[in-house]
Write a sequence for this structure.
C-alpha cells in the first residue's frame, strides 16, 4: 500500500470514529492531510462516518483538483492553515456541539477563548484565538486564519466551530477531541468558582512538554 492510500484509509477511519461519537453530525466537518505532492481533503457534502477512501479529494498546492470527488468548499480554510504553519501535517475542522456552543458566546476573550482548565488542553491545544464571524465559504476567512496559524495550532471560528492542526492526522484528531472536552468542562463550570492552572504550572508544561501558551 502506498503512503497516499494508507493516509486515505486513515482519514476514513478517523472520520468514522468522530462521526460515531457524535462529533461530526450530518455532513458537517472536514479532514485534510499533507502529502509530498499535494494534500488530501474530504469531499464536499460528505458524511465523515461513511467516507470511501477513493473518494477523498487530492489537491495540488495551487488549488488544482487531481483526483477523487470535488473537495470540501472549505478547502481554502485548510490551505490557509497549512500556509500559516509550515510544520502542520493534518487539519481537522468540526462543528462539535460544545466547541460550537462556546463559539456562539458573547464577551469571549478573543485572544484565548478557553481558559487553562487542564494540563492536556494547554499541551495539546494551547491558546485558542477567536476568528470573527464570516459566512461559510467566505474567502476572507482564509486571510483571517493565515494571520494566526503561525502562532497557534488551533482557532475557533465564531458561530461555527474549531479548526485544529497537528503534526500528523492522529495528533490533530486527539487535539480537537481535547478541545471539545475542554469546551464541555468550560460550559459545565461557568456558574462555579474555578481553579485554573497558574503561570508557574503553565511554564512547567512549556518546559517539560513544549506546550504553546
Amino acid at each position: 500500500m502506498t503512503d497516499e492510500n494508507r493516509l486515505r484509509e486513515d482519514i476514513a477511519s478517523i472520520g468514522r470514529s468522530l462521526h460515531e461519537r457524535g462529533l461530526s453530525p450530518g455532513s458537517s466537518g472536514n479532514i485534510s492531510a499533507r502529502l509530498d505532492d499535494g494534500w488530501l481533503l474530504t469531499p464536499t457534502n460528505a458524511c465523515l462516518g461513511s467516507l470511501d477512501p477513493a473518494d477523498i479529494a487530492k489537491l495540488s498546492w495551487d488549488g488544482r483538483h487531481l483526483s477523487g470527488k470535488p473537495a470540501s468548499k472549505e478547502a481554502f480554510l485548510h490551505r490557509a492553515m497549512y500556509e500559516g504553519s509550515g510544520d502542520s501535517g493534518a487539519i481537522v475542522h468540526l462543528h462539535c456541539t460544545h466547541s460550537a456552543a462556546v463559539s456562539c458566546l458573547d464577551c469571549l476573550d478573543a485572544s484565548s477563548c478557553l481558559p487553562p482548565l487542564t494540563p492536556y488542553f494547554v499541551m495539546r491545544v494551547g491558546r485558542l484565538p477567536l476568528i470573527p464571524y464570516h459566512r461559510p465559504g467566505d474567502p476572507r476567512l482564509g486571510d483571517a486564519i493565515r494571520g494566526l496559524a503561525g502562532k497557534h495550532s488551533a482557532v475557533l471560528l465564531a458561530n461555527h466551530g474549531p479548526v485544529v492542526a497537528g503534526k500528523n492526522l492522529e495528533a490533530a484528531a486527539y487535539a480537537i477531541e481535547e478541545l471539545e472536552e475542554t469546551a464541555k468542562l468550560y460550559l459545565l463550570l461557568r456558574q462555579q468558582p474555578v481553579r485554573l492552572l497558574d503561570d508557574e504550572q503553565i511554564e512547567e508544561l512549556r518546559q517539560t512538554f513544549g506546550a504553546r501558551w
